[in-house]
């Protein structure tokens, strides 16, 4: 990474530390339970999660809704944040399934872990780590999910290579993300919010 990339990454980190520890502070992008419901999550499922978790939801879609659930599968949630998709996956894939949530910020990992422990969700584990160096063994995962994270990663081919490394043959990637269309102007990008705020 160039020096500028390190600076941007540090700002991204600071942004999500803020979403973890001060989720009600004004953000330039939509967060929280109302956003999750707008993105197609079952409102009852969102209301059934601890508010301390859904308040830090920062996803852009509903990756678990992209494929049927096969109970017993092993799932990795890249950039899990406060763990909304990870906990939903732990419930959906059931006690014989296993979920690993990975996030680069210690604050998100601590928040997700504390909530999972308090809610006695035993089949989920949160690990601090980078999307392009996942702390997960080769060929041990059935499903990789990710919600709003690839756009924040500089080396997307490297992240995809990591996805392929951890997936078993026949495994799948279910992801939601934002894309920059050709017609979008710099001014529109500026209005919507940039890499960091
Ligand atoms: C937009 S938020 C989405 C969080 C979560 N997926 C959700 O739906 O609420 C992006 C998350 O990815 C994490 N993140 C950003 N870049 C990352 C990277 N290179 N490796 C691991 N995590 C990263 C951030 O710390 C943040 O928690």
What is the count of helical runs? Answer: 8
Element-by-element helix/strand order: HHHHEHEHEEHEH
Portion of residues in beta strands equals: 15-25%
The largest sheet, given as strand count, sense and whether it forms a barrel, is: 5 strands, parallel
Structure, explained:
The structure is a single chain. By secondary structure, this protein is an alpha/beta fold. The protein has one domain: Rossmann fold (3-Layer(aba) Sandwich), CATH 3.40.50.150. 38% of the residues lie in helices and 17% in strands. It has helices at residues 3-21, 33-38, 43-47, 51-54, 84-93, 106-118, 156-166, 186-192, and strands spanning 74-78, 98-103, 124-128, 141-147, 167-176. The chain has a five-stranded parallel beta sheet with strand order 3-2-1-4-5. Helix 5 links the parallel strand 1 (74-78) and strand 2 (98-103). Helix 1 (3-21) runs parallel beside helix 6. It binds S-adenosylmethionine (SAM). The site of S-adenosylmethionine (SAM) has 21 residues, from helix 1 and helix 5.
């Amino acid at each position: 990474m160039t020096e500028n990339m390190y600076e941007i990454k540090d700002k991204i980190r600071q942004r999500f530390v803020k979403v973890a520890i001060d989720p009600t502070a004004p953000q330039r992008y939509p967060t929280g339970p109302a956003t999750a419901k707008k993105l197609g999550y079952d409102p009852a499922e969102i209301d059934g999660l601890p508010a301390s978790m859904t308040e830090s939801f920062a996803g852009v879609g509903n990756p678990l809704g992209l494929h049927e659930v096969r109970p017993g599968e092993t799932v990795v949630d890249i950039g899990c944040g406060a763990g909304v998709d990870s906990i939903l996956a732990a419930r959906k894939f059931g006690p014989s399934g296993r979920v690993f949530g990975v996030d680069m910020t210690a604050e998100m990992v601590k928040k997700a872990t504390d909530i999972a422990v308090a809610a006695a969700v035993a089949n989920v584990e949160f690990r601090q780590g980078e999307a392009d160096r996942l702390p997960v063994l080769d060929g041990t995962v059935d499903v990789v999910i990710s919600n709003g994270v690839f756009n924040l990663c500089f080396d997307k081919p490297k992240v995809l290579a990591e996805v392929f490394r951890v997936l078993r043959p026949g495994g799948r990637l279910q992801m939601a993300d934002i894309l920059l269309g050709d017609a979008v102007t710099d001014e529109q990008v500026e209005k919507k919010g940039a890499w960091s705020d």
